[in-house]
Structure formats: structure tokens, C-alpha cells
Design a protein that fits this description.
By secondary structure, this protein is mainly alpha-helical. It has 13 helices and two strands. The two termini are 40 Å apart.
């Protein structure tokens, strides 16, 4: 059996995708349905405002907002994938089922990715409307303004979505190494805050522009989206504009796969040995 069939097409844990869809549609409980109606109402109002004022809204700001949401949605959909099962005392029953560790991890992860894709799908109509309706202010930009292309917008959205995949995968790894879902969520949110906010602020405050620090900006979703959004921007110091877009999408996907595989390896540890930072064995 190939890895694709084992982990995806014939994976019994793909029931997590249906569960994710049910959570998204609020079918699991009455409270979920009420939350769904509230979110739906907010979305309809927000979409109406975007359509009404589309000529004043640049699509890139919606991509920024979507990426910001994924920094929270990614951890929220994966923080209880493993640690939540341990906390509810259902992990032993799951392990005793006729599924492998890989099927458990990938089933949980793909269920979270479905939610991320559903949220991204909600943004697509608004992105299209604002891109084709936005009117450039000539008093602000004059004749020097050159707008990003539709392909640039596709790349920006791809970076945003794959960043959400990575945030979910990283949180899944944290979940496999902890025993409390709340602790997992806290660690993941702190990691997002440090990488997305504190690190760029530190570079800006210290004016430290060494090669190592600048290279890390190549992985920062907001930085790379900003480069694509400004056609006048030649790119980062070590990477031309042509190297912004597809490489980040590929890197996000590779890092996501690496984090999920690492989480799978973690599940082979004895339950009592699971620690977020494992200790080295004594000689």
C-alpha cells in the first residue's frame, strides 16, 4: 500500500474531516448552531460593506486580515488533536483502534486543513470584488503607481493559506508533545506572537540586519505579502522579487509536512515520556 493510500484515501481517520465540517456548520450542538448563525450574520454584514465600498478597499488588506485570522484559526483547530484526547482519557481507545499513528496524525491534520480552506473560500468572493473594483487615488500615487497583477494576488492568497496550514501543523506537533489542550493552545499562540510580531519589532528596534535575521524574514508571511503587493519593491536584500511567491508556498507546505511527520514520531513515545521539551537520557 502506498503512503498516499495509507494516509489519505484509505485512512479511517478521515472521519475527522466530516467532524470538522460539522463543527464549521454548527451541527454538533445547539450552541454551535447559534455561533454559526452569529458568524454568518457578521460575514453577511462584512461582505456587504466590502461590496459597497469595494472601490476604496485594496484586496491586499483582506489578505492581511485573512493571514491574521489564520494565526489564530490554525492553533484553534489543532490544539486538541492529541493533547485533547489525552485530557479526555480517550487516547488509549484511539490507539487501540486498528489505525496507525500516521493515520491518526494525518486524519487530525487534514480535518483542520478543511476548516482553513473553508474560511479561505469565504474570502475569495471579497478578494475578487475588491481587486477588480479598487480605484487608485491619483492624488496619492500620481502617474508613478503600478498595481500588482492578479497573479500576485493569487500568490499572496496562496502564502496566506499555506501559512494557515503551517500554523495548524506546528500546533499539532505541540499537541503531540503536551498533555493539556489549553497548554498547547497557549504555546502555539505565544509562538505565533513571537514569530509574527516580536521578532520583526526586535529587528526594527535594533536595526540588526545580519544575513541570518534577514533570511528569516523570507519566511514571514506579512513581509512577503507586502513585497508582492508593492510592484515598486525589488524584493528582499538576498532574494529578488521573482523569488517571492511560489517559494514561500512550497516552503510552508514542506514545513507543514515536516511538523506533521515529527508529530507522528512523537506518538511512538510512551505516554509517560511525552514532554514538550524532552530530557536527554542519562548515560
Amino acid at each position: 500500500m502506498t503512503a498516499w493510500r495509507h494516509l489519505v484515501t484509505e485512512n479511517p481517520m478521515l472521519v475527522e474531516i466530516r467532524r470538522a465540517q460539522q463543527r464549521f456548520l454548527g451541527r454538533t450542538r445547539a450552541g454551535g448552531q447559534i455561533a454559526l448563525y452569529l458568524v454568518g450574520a457578521v460575514y453577511v454584514v462584512a461582505a456587504g460593506v466590502v461590496v459597497r465600498y469595494a472601490q476604496y478597499i485594496d484586496a491586499v488588506w483582506l489578505v492581511y486580515f485573512q493571514t491574521f485570522l489564520f494565526a489564530f484559526i490554525g492553533p484553534s483547530v489543532s490544539h486538541g488533536a492529541v493533547s485533547g484526547e489525552r485530557e479526555k482519557r480517550t487516547w488509549d481507545m484511539l490507539v487501540a483502534a486498528p489505525v496507525t499513528a500516521g493515520q491518526i496524525v494525518w486524519g487530525k491534520y487534514l480535518g483542520g486543513c478543511v476548516l482553513i480552506l473553508l474560511v479561505a473560500a469565504l474570502f475569495l468572493p471579497m478578494l475578487g470584488v475588491t481587486y477588480f473594483s479598487y480605484e487608485v487615488n491619483p492624488y496619492m500615487w500620481g502617474d508613478q503607481y503600478r498595481r500588482y497583477t492578479f497573479w500576485d494576488l493569487v500568490m499572496m492568497d496562496g502564502i496566506s493559506i499555506t501559512f494557515g496550514f503551517f500554523a495548524a501543523a506546528l500546533t499539532l506537533l505541540f499537541s503531540a508533545r503536551t498533555k493539556r489542550a489549553f497548554v498547547t493552545l497557549g504555546i502555539a499562540l505565544v509562538a505565533m506572537f513571537v514569530v509574527l510580531v516580536l521578532y520583526p519589532l526586535f529587528l526594527n528596534a535594533t536595526r540588526f540586519v545580519g544575513a541570518e535575521s534577514v533570511i528569516l524574514l523570507y519566511f514571514h508571511p506579512f513581509v512577503t505579502i507586502g513585497v508582492l503587493a508593492d510592484p515598486h519593491d525589488p524584493g528582499l536584500e538576498f532574494a529578488a522579487r521573482e523569488w517571492i511567491g511560489l517559494p514561500q508556498i512550497a516552503i510552508n507546505l514542506a514545513l507543514s509536512v515536516g511538523a506533521v511527520v515529527w508529530a507522528e514520531k512523537t506518538l511512538h513515545f510512551a505516554d509517560g515520556d511525552v514532554k514538550f521539551i524532552p530530557r536527554k537520557p542519562h548515560a
